[in-house]
From TrEMBL:
Keywords: Electron transport, Heme, Iron, Membrane, Metal-binding, Respiratory chain, Transmembrane, Transmembrane helix, Transport
Keyword Transmembrane helix: yes
SUPFAM superfamilies from the UniProt entry: Cytochrome c oxidase subunit I-like (SSF81442)
Main location: membrane
Membrane topology according to the record: Multi-pass membrane protein
Keyword flag Electron transport: yes
Family that this chain belongs to: Belongs to the heme-copper respiratory oxidase family.
Cross-referenced PROSITE patterns: COX1 (PS50855), COX1_CUB (PS00077)
Name of the featured protein: Cytochrome c oxidase subunit I
GO CC, one annotated term: membrane
UniProt signal peptide: none
Amino acid sequence: MEVETGQLVLTGVMALLLAGVVWWVSHVKRRQSYSVSAGGTATGVQPAERVEKPSGLIRWLTAVDHKDIGLMYGVFALFSFAWGGIAVVLMRTELLTPSADFLGLGFYNALMTTHGITMLFLFGTPMLASFSNYLIPLLIGADDMAFPRVNAIAFWLLPPGALLIWGGLILEPLNVGIQGAQTAWTLYTPLSVQQTNPGVDLMILGLHLTGVSATMGAINFVATIFAERDEKVTWASLDIFSWTVLVQSGQIIFAFPLLGSALVMLLLDRNFETSFFSVEAGGSILWQHLFWFFGHPEVYILVLPPMGLISYILPRFSGRRLFGFKFVVYSTLALGVLSFGVWAHHMFATGIDPRLRASFMAVSIAIAIPSAVKTFNWITTMWNGSLRLKTPMLFCVGFIANFIIGGVTGVFEASIPVDLVLHDTYHVIAHFHYVIMGGIAFAIFAAVYYWFPLFTQKWYQQTLGKWHFWLTMVGTNLTFFPMIFLGYGGMPRRYGSYDLTVGPVSYFTDLHQIATLGVYILAIGQLIFVWNIVTSWLEGPDIEDGDPWNLDDYGMVTNEWKWLERKRETVLLDGGSEEDTLKGEE
């Protein structure tokens, strides 16, 4: 009874908080950026009279400007990255030895659950939304997003969603009857129904909020790209990053509402004794179909914008335009469509109809073709180019190398006979993390370094940037390559202990220890990254002009850098100095 009362109180407080945020944002007058328009709206309407933004905390609480919201998404995502990263460091430390003598199995399972959900829903999607919010209006010549207030609401749904997702772990030390959820990020039934821990309900509610946030953001991006483009930006000249965000947004609009519906049914089963996922109604198979119909498009929801980032950044340091631009766009559209036809390859071992399995195997193998098209186009773009191995370029090259490993291992798992052997082993973790950490994170790092002068008008420490790349590259491969061999050896994933009476325990131990060493190296690299970004933002040397990467030498200056040059000129003409440039939007 006390636990139920506590749940009601928490739910009431969260509802009041959300209502307050909605009311606050809806009553704030929209403020235009101090800088000149990036090109006007598609209708040619002149921007409203410029109004100075408030300073301090009020500026960020009331922000509707796409650049401010983009920065808030980025800060939130980095905080979530730290939460998920600390969780995995603790988990890998537990796996140094066969017995569960560090965390205990219950806490290990809770950390595993929060790590997966945090990295996918609280780091990956928001971090990509950060770049999309900040850059897309600049790239397409729009004044702002199509619905600025909806944009703000979409962001402000994330912090309460994160608190709900992490609520079980946060409240567990208080001994109020709520613990961290131990369902893994897939929430498979009947486990997720049978666990009476209220922390599972909090996590489901938090997931629902993040899904609503992503859907609102996706609708906004589609409307912005369709309706707010400058007249000079046609579909033929639309940049590749905007293309990938457009396809990603379409996937979100179709996939996330289904996840929300499945989560509502799961909540009803848990709290009101309905039977959506009872054995008679389909049980775990029904949940898996609903979940993975969202879950596999989610992989491409996460990977398409990073592919766009690589396709956008890599040519700038190759001295050549992207090879086969149209084919990269077509392959992006193909990935967006095919991603909805491969979900059951996660279910080859469940005993579904062999004819269905064969069709899903065919599509799962075929979907490798559009990814291969992109990979060959990236390599061809670099071929005989004037390569400049700056930090963003290093991360682009690292992305390609890791993505090839992740893609090849995925083709093996798409084959039914091979998958039946490797299903739910560490081989799956290796494949997935080569794409997520070795691919998506590398593309994000490349984008952070490439646009850091745009965000801050300062330089980062380039030596530290290269240290960050090499530690991350070595750490990634040292962590995940041994997991391929763990999978071949039959080590099941999601286990916090491998203290066996029979079996290759020493083989498992050696590979786990190598992987854990890789995680420690990764952690050191990310600490260097945070130090570099924070100190450079505060104390870094100012850039000299609006073309810090000398793109004009290759005829590759794009809209965002032209906007930066206009902003700097506006500050100087208005009586400011170059040191005042950072304040140009206030």
